[in-house]
Protein 1
Amino acid sequence: MTTRWLTSKEQRAWRAYIAATHLLEDAIDRQLQQDAGMPHLYYSILANLSDAPEHRLRMTDLAERTKITRSRLTYAVTRLEKDGLLRRENCRWDKRGSVAALTEEGMATLERTAPGHVATVRASLFDQLTEEQVDQLEEICTGIARALESDDARPAPDEVPWRRRSSPSCP
Amino acid sequence: MTTRWLTSKEQRAWRAYIAATHLLEDAIDRQLQQDAGMPHLYYSILANLSDAPEHRLRMTDLAERTKITRSRLTYAVTRLEKDGLLRRENCRWDKRGSVAALTEEGMATLERTAPGHVATVRASLFDQLTEEQVDQLEEICTGIARALESDDARPAPDEVPWRRRSSPSCP
DNA sequence: TAGGTTTGTTTCAAACTTGAACCAAGCCCG
DNA sequence: CGGGCTTGGTTCAAGTTTGAAACAAACCTA
């Protein structure tokens, strides 16, 4: 089958997408590194914990929410633990598991740095968009994420493996 | 001034954005690593060169187009040069400068791997979007990029330094 | 035209990411 | 029970990214 290249409209969109995502990720990383001493991902990990019941989550759940690999998470959590911002506990219901728990200090760091982070996200993203564009962005991103998570991902036009995880952190 | 937190609509959009961009970047990196033995950024570098007149660009231009730092580019170009996919030449008009030039082999690699790459971009992104959404995405991303490039970036509500670069690669 | 600043690029060490391999602990079924 | 498969996490080496510092050529400007 002969390749269906991108139309010029698609090319423009793709280029704009690449530029925007690189620039945005850079801006946010820079700001957080500056003000919180950590990159965006690490901040997200703390933020996810602070949203969770009891400020704690299983490693796998955390990886799932932040959309990163387990090994990347392990490294990040080790660093954050060293910094005293979270603590590793072992899961009571599954002896294999470990749980990351936000510490007081982690919570404090989050509270101290959240305003600056939000301000950056606003200035870089939401201040540039109309209300409708915010809706559109959500719609678009949700669609992309759905596709990639369900492995509609592959160009290959064939069967869907359909393995999904379950296992909550507290049964 | 008291922080203006994200509305729940904005939060949803932001989370969706993070998820989509992570998943998409991962999917594309995985595919290219698999089929071309290099991550997306490296492919982009080659692609940008192939688009340029004479298949060559100044380092700074290349960094500008790919939206990455000069030092990151230096590393990437060194690797690609080692692989024989491009060559470094020194700029004839500016003795400080160096120029990256796509080799035959680089061009061949690009030609060989482009179809797979396009297929992945399509499957992961464009196949999920309506025509209007493609327009919306372009619009949104262009806005974000414009803001971040002109340093409307900063949350700080003050003066704009306004330093812009010029200097084309071939005067 | 000398001296100071700016611009283009590289270098270096420290931090981070990747993917494959590994180790347990749970799970399943004869 | 007793293997064998799956799942949750970590480890390790190789590769990549970061940011600050170093260099060198180019560009002022008095």
Note: Chain B has a mean pLDDT of 89.
Protein 2
Amino acid sequence: MNPNREQELSRRERQIMDVIHSRGQATAAEVLAALPEPPGYSAVRALLRILETKGHLRHHRAGAVYVYTPSSSPESARQSALQRVVTTFFQGSVSQAVAALLTTPEKEISETELNELQNLINQARKEGR
Amino acid sequence: MNPNREQELSRRERQIMDVIHSRGQATAAEVLAALPEPPGYSAVRALLRILETKGHLRHHRAGAVYVYTPSSSPESARQSALQRVVTTFFQGSVSQAVAALLTTPEKEISETELNELQNLINQARKEGR
DNA sequence: GTTCATGTGCTAAAAAATTAGCACCACCTG
DNA sequence: CAGGTGGTGCTAATTTTTTAGCACATGAAC
């Protein structure tokens, strides 16, 4: 899902895509339970069908229930979402976005994670990027 | 603008907020020029007025022209946007989001920027976070 | 078998979003 | 001054989105 396609989404469509992305997959009931100001079950299903028609979602059957997953890969979705934020809010500067993340007050980063990030920075240096 | 408020935005509203955030401020004509599949000028103005009524934007007059700016601070908007992506696509893991940014293929990070990020990681270590 | 709970496909109505157009204003140029 | 250009406020029509409800299907429990 590239940024242009996400911009096509209406309010509810986008809320639903966010729910499914955050869980990786979801049934209609799970989507319903996670939506702000939730409508009825049949409203959710109608929107899921629309999102599938538009190509954003697909479904498989698990028993009697449809389970919906994003059509694009998780990695692709992640990169697209990040790029949109970098472009929109950080004038395209990846380093500023990283810096903002590193200084975010909400989340502690463990020693192990800091080491991993350290390695990535070292790699970036080695690759001349 | 916290994530819940952004979720209230309709398709066009969100496109417009993105334009204004990426520029820092914009006139109606600038918004119009930057929109995908642009409507007419008066349609853009009507939406800007709606966004102002909802509290997302404010305007000041520059000569004869209205210039619209986000109601929330740039820093606040950045953090909100990042948090949404971290929560939705990275299960709340800041370090994974940072790692994804560091491995993004699109953008080169300069030596100076790498040093700055290095410093931020060092600070995170010193502060025990 | 029946009943109940929960699922689906589909549709149309209701609500919201989007759009364009009118009337008017401000400013600049000839 | 008049005309042209570009701005605004406002409204209503049009389009899109959202919603709920009907009919039917499925599976489990009795």
Note: Helices of chain B lie at 3-6, 11-23, 28-34, 41-53, 74-89, 94-102, 111-126.
Protein 3
Amino acid sequence: MSTMETRPRLPAAERRESILAAASVVFGERGYAGATTDQIATAAGISQAYVVRTFGSKEALFVEVARRAVGRIEAAFRAAIADDDGRPVARRLGQAYIELVADRGILLSLLHIFSLGSDPAIGPVGRDGFLTIYRLVRDEAGLSPEDASHFLAEGMLINTVLALQLHGSDDPDAVELVTQVCGGDLGHFRTLAGG
Amino acid sequence: MSTMETRPRLPAAERRESILAAASVVFGERGYAGATTDQIATAAGISQAYVVRTFGSKEALFVEVARRAVGRIEAAFRAAIADDDGRPVARRLGQAYIELVADRGILLSLLHIFSLGSDPAIGPVGRDGFLTIYRLVRDEAGLSPEDASHFLAEGMLINTVLALQLHGSDDPDAVELVTQVCGGDLGHFRTLAGG
DNA sequence: TGTACAAGTAATCAACCGATTACAACCTGA
DNA sequence: TCAGGTTGTAATCGGTTGATTACTTGTACA
């Protein structure tokens, strides 16, 4: 369950990373307001006081988690663009995205960033990140504005299906919808997402 | 700012409605965990104790708000299907949806329902609601599974754009993206959503 | 009229949370 | 070796929150 259980002392840089990994999971499960610094500390195997002191505040920690999540999407998309295996680029991007948000911590971090769009500290991070991704699929992957928009739309539906855990439902309509969403490869989708 | 400011005593049924209206706004602004029963009470013009006693708990109140939000989508979609003005049904549904989620309370209630997909009390409400909407656009509006899926995807992108408040941004790429999302009628979109 | 129930609140409680402080343990190098 | 910086924690504090209790006020109707 916990991300780190090693006991020995760690250099500050590594400790930061382990806290960020734990925070991504806990923020994902409970949301920004719902998560506590103590839950994050327990998941990271350290004291609550150390979590707060390392990042200054709970809000600063969440902003850093949000930036990391956007950064991982960027990196995955650039890799998918560079690794041309003959399939259309949108297809490669889609698969890269699904593999990424199969990590529930990242998925739910994204959703929480969206719903905090009017927060003065987190809103700008979300807007900049989303536009960065839009520019990336338009300019670097070469999609038209219309195709880029459709691609993002499919991604947002994937978010919703995974968040609601509609994969894993055996309702026939759910199966039909999820099959549409994952482009037909339901088995692979469920394996990735743990449905 | 507040939804109700009338002072006189109200029968329980009407008071329930006014609390639900206030709760939709406050839950939307702060999220489930972030909203307090006292903020809801203030918005409804009554005491915090009465809010809790009327619904039993904060969670029960949120579940009711969530059910109402799904119900409003259902109702709006049925109306859009029935009111055939010659435009394609998907177009009518899209406009009805935008008019609905221009209400930030409803929009953010939906997003919070999604991110609470693994909550034992709220998750089932979200799954049932989403599948109900899927069946509605497929069976009653007559869209193919593929078209229905695309329609829902566009809706989820609309959610994200509105939540992040990308309408209202003057970044040229944001304008381009939002124009795609709203089907070209940027002015009308911004008027509705207050960007 | 008066009483019984419905509408509504003030006051309070136990639990929780983020942050601060003060301190302990460990490591490095001069 | 011992001084100083780094890693880490225990204890605690002020503020907040959802919920409970005991109470007041209004009103329908027999």
Note: Chain B has a mean pLDDT of 93.
Protein 4
Amino acid sequence: MSEKILLIDGHSILNRAFYGLPDLTNAEGRHTGAVYGFLNIMFRILEEEKPEYLTVAFDLSAPTFRHKRYEAYKGTRKPMPEELREQVPLIKEMLSAMGINIMSLEGYEADDLLGTVARRSEAKGMDVTILSGDRDLLQLATDKVLIRLPKTVRGKTTVENYHTAEVLEKYQVTPPQIIELKALMGDSSDNIPGIPGVGEKTATKMIVQFGSIENAHEHLEEVKPNKAKESLREHYDLAQLSKELATINTDSPLEFSYEKAKVENPYTPEAYELCKRLEFKNMLNRFDPATTADSSMELEFFTCNDLSGVEALFEKAAQKDQVGISVLADPDQVYTVGLVLDEKEIYQIPVGGLLTGDYLCGKLKALADSTVLCAMDIKSVLKHVSLDDPKKVFDAGVAAYLLNPLKSSYSHDDIAREYLDGMMLPSKEDLLGKTSLKKAWEEELEWLGNYACYQAFVPCMARKVLLEKLDETGMRKVYDEIELPLVFTLDSMEKWGISVKGEELKSYGEKLKVRIQELEKTIWQEAGEEFNINSPKQLGVILFEKLGLPGGKKTKTGYSTAADILDKLAPDYAIVKDILEYRQLTKLKSTYADGLGNVIGEDGRIHSTFNQTITATGRISSTDPNLQNIPVRMELGRLIRKVFVPEEGFVFLDADYSQIELRVLAHMSGDEKLIQAYREAEDIHRLTASQVFHVPLDEVTSLQRRNAKAVNFGIVYGISSFGLSQDLSITRKEAAAYIEKYFETYPKIKGFLDGLVKDGKEHGYVTTMFGRRRPVPELRSSNFMQRSFGERVAMNSPIQGTAADIIKIAMNHVYERMKKEGLRSRLVLQVHDELLIETKKEEIEEVSRILEEEMKGAADLAVELDVDMHQGDSWYEAK
DNA sequence: AAACTCACG
DNA sequence: ACGTACGTGAGTTTG
């Protein structure tokens, strides 16, 4: 096997990372996104290629031979944005810290150095890989020199690979001929002039036919089309100059030492420190604990597996102000309990013999009488330990979520790294891999025990700092008064679950099946062949190629067949109408009829999980199954709600807030006109239309009302004329006019929304009425698209988040009151602005009163919080 | 695993 | 000029 060298085009990879990926900033406000992206792609390629040598090439600012040859060269190039410029020294510092060789040479560009080292290495018989974002490098490809171009599509990075063959395949010319192409076409980003009137197509044709610019010039009369012929005749000199400029110099006088380019372990203590300073948390994972001085603290774990030892341990634990606990268990069995008294006393207690799960959970429950139990996830503890006082527990996951709701998980290793001075602990994955808890308990008790210890250790140690940060950020009240009590409320909802008629669900599914099969036949007939209607790819080919429907391309990978596209075609094509119906029915069958059927428990009820640490705004989410997206808008789908029923002797009471987000907007903005509107109107959209379009209330047309409603929604989503125009199928101009009229009508709204964006930019986050924060890093992005997204988020999150806060407060109060009053009714579902209560028939009146009082009284707004309430013998009827 | 589609607020 | 509504979760196909 020959040796391999990896050459990286420093600036171009940094550039790509900067423009293609979201920007990051650390606590010092330094921009670091591009550096982070650079490292990610570099390590990915390093792992794939495992080269013996590595070097990164950078341009210098001094003029190059190209400047001397051609004055305008790069003369008018756009200046680098400041956010990127400041990251150039940073990446160099990082590479140095990692002991990675950097090369640059006055008078030459990075390309030339890459080319030079590539040719030299090739001559030594090495394999060469060049990593760049710049297609110009393709001219260097050979059978031994691989050019790799990373591409980012929607935040996901893939890499295109080119040896000679791939260049030929994609561009129809050899790698050296890439230069000819570029010289003809020009390249505005490099200020290669090119010749007028020749684009990619013509240039390719010319080079395929003639091989070079010179040869084309010699056979000028054969050059087609005419325009290209004349252009080449007139600008031949320019083309030759361009060629010269575009040619990478592979023979620069670079002093290059393979010795210095040898790949060593990049995970040095210096690099670790720098990654920490830049807050590259995920990068820190890669570092070997041995190389990182400060994470080498050894934790000592003890096992306690005799009854008297456990008794003594719990007695000692009861004397502490706080203890860390963990309960590793499946729904029906406890495997191991972790108990941490302080950093020196960390215990695992495996279930076995006299130490049963019930016994240990009983001990934990009793322990809560005398100390505070700290856990990663209190709700999971509640499944086995029936605690009832939020004041006696601490939930590290919930606390960390409040401090940064944008994280994808809140595991013990993440929290240790972030809140315990960068402490690196093994993750669950590291300890158990994909082994189930049950299997680990049977076969790898040691590893399971370690996991239990870490799970108990981290929340115990991090409690202090997490609470301090909640205090500092003004979120202590949200934690104490909303989120922590909510853990108990959600646990209760999960335990109760909701009763579902399995048989009816089945027959509903079978009815759907009949119609689906009919439709399938019809569609195949209309298409003239059998194909998989569920495959957007196959469907796109049938509709837009075989049948030639208008519409054409839409997505990255092919034709879009989404409903909003098909809707437009449906009136004219029977097959489209059938496909839409087919889609609707298969969705209902697979996701709801079959999907829900599969998760009915032995008790005949569905027990969804309500996730408290998922959403960026503060809403809860529902999984396994998701009960927050049960159909309601279409009647056929809505029928599914008939299978959700209360148990014998109960009815459903369903209460939903009426336009809570708009009311929150009215309150937070303080716009008197909108507030007044809510005091008067029963139909806010109609009133909005009347005020915006200056017509009397009873003369508002249905179109005007629809438009006003869309604007109301748009405002809440972070208004943009484009978005509104899409929603209403009108031009952007018209949409902009609606928005302007709206802002004229409600003058404080605009100021309020602008203020949110301004505050967001200033602080880096926005807050709800109750102080919940959402960071909005996109607001500081130099990328227009990302920044615009940030602006919409800054406008929407405080509104959506405040509404989420309000209903959470209401849920807690309803739950606590029903409990205090000894009622047998129970909260079973929350759907963002709606609560569903399985109500004991004797308690209907009392529960109605509680619901109304607690929902309306959850927050004190300038407008009333209106609640619609219904009762029924199924969810369908209670809506 | 990612892309696409679609259900909800 | 860029190219979008805000927030979710799940099923299916495909590379």
Note: Residues 753 and 795 of chain A are 6 Å apart (CA to CA).
